[in-house]
Each structure stands twice: as structure tokens, then as C-alpha cells.
Amino acid sequence: MVALLILGAAFGYQAPAVAATCDTPANFNEALERADSVFVARVISVSDGGVSAVAAVEAVWKGPDLEDTVNLDGGDSSDKVSGLTRTHSVGQRLLVVAAWSRRVFNDDGCTATRPFTGSATDIPVPMQAALGTDQARVPIAAESVEAGSEGSEFPVRSVALGGLVLVLILVGIFLVRRAVAFRPELDERDFAPNQVAAKPDLPPVPQRRVAGWMSGRFSRSGRDQLARLKGDRKR
Questions:
Q1: Kind and range of the H or E element at 129?
Q2: How confident is the model at residue 149 (pLDDT cuts 50, 70, 90)?
């Protein structure tokens, strides 16, 4: 009985000290008003027995814009009995109500941080007055990705445009080669190397006739030569 009384006296003595040290707000909404930052986050890694943690931010409810990950400091790692130190666990989803200090959020046992379930972007109506807003914000990194999503289409569009241009060039080359292959007045030397094209079997045309016809178009002597060729053909 004496031992139990001693233990009870010891615990009874510590409780007021904890409450006085924490300076706990009267209610949760008051804690929201006094907090430097309020956000929803999921713990992704812990160290120092869970006192220090890295959390992925899902949405910011109050305070400055945050990056996609933040550091949480649960307090004194050597003091896990008094209740002043908070320990975190991987996968834990929290509504962090904390003070910000040198890139680390003070998230010890005196803060109003609590487990959180539900949508991170929907601020409950009872909390909106204390937070001064009804709009949640996504982390900075997530915003930059969304803002750059339109810009990220630029390489895709460039590749698509380049492919279209290449197809048009190939189609143009095919049509030109095909047109060249079916022009009977061209010589075989006008065909591209290794180009196979069927030429119709035409009767041989005397070179003299062709020469006479060509020259007859441009000179009198050519016309005379053409007349002689016609006379030879009649004979």
C-alpha cells in the first residue's frame, strides 16, 4: 500500500508539470489559430527511435507553401516517458499542427497534431474559421509538376511533328521516283540507281528521224533535212 501511494504521488506530481510545460490551448480550434502551419502528411521514414521523421505533404491548410517532403521533430529522444516527446511511425497519416523552425517542424507531444483520415484537400467546415480559409493547397513540387505538364507536351509535339514531316518527305520521294519511272521520254540514265521500272516495248525510232524533227523545229536546214528524210522513206 505504501509503495502504491508513493507511485501515485509521483505520477500526480508529474501531471501538472507536463500541462504547465506544454501550455496546451483550451481547445483544438485555438490550437489551429496559434499554429504556424497546419497540413496533412504521411510519415515515410523515421529515425532516432521514431522521434525524428520525414513526412510527405499531401495538402497545406495553413501557413507558408511547403515542399513535397518536410522534417518533423518530436522533441527530446531521451524523454519518452513524460509525454512531452512524440514518436512517429512509418505510414502514419497525420494532421500536423506545428510550429516551424529552421526547416524543421516542432511536432512534440505539446502540439495538437492528431491522426487524420479522409480527403486531404477538403477542410472540415468547423475548422475553416480557425484556419481562415476553406481552400487547401498542394505542395510546391506537386504544383510545379502540374504547371509544367503543358510544357512537357512540347517534346511530344516536337516528336509528332518531326514524324509527320518525315512521312511527308518519304511520300514526296516516292511520288517523284514513280513519276520519273513512268516518263517514257527519259533515258535509263535518268533513273535512280537500282531503280527497277518496266518500259513499254516500243518500236525503235531511227535516230535520224528524231534528229531531223528536233532540228526542223529551230532552223531552215533542219526543215530541209526533214524533207529529205521523208523523200527517202517514200522511195
A1: helix 125-131
A2: very low
Rounded CA separation 171/208 (Å):
40
Helix (H/G/I), strand (E/B), else coil: 134: coil
Confidence label for 154 from pLDDT (cuts 50, 70 and 90): very low
pTM score, whole prediction: 0.51
Beta-carbon neighbour count of residue 139 at 10 Å? 21
Alpha-carbon distance 110 to 85, whole Å?
Answer: 8
Domain ranges of the chain: 2-146, 149-198, 200-230
CB 23 within 8 A of CB 110: yes
Domain 2-146 CATH (choose: 2.40.128, 2.40.30, 1.10.3470, 2.40.50): 2.40.50
Report pLDDT for 22: 79
Mean pLDDT score of the chain, rounded to an integer? 74
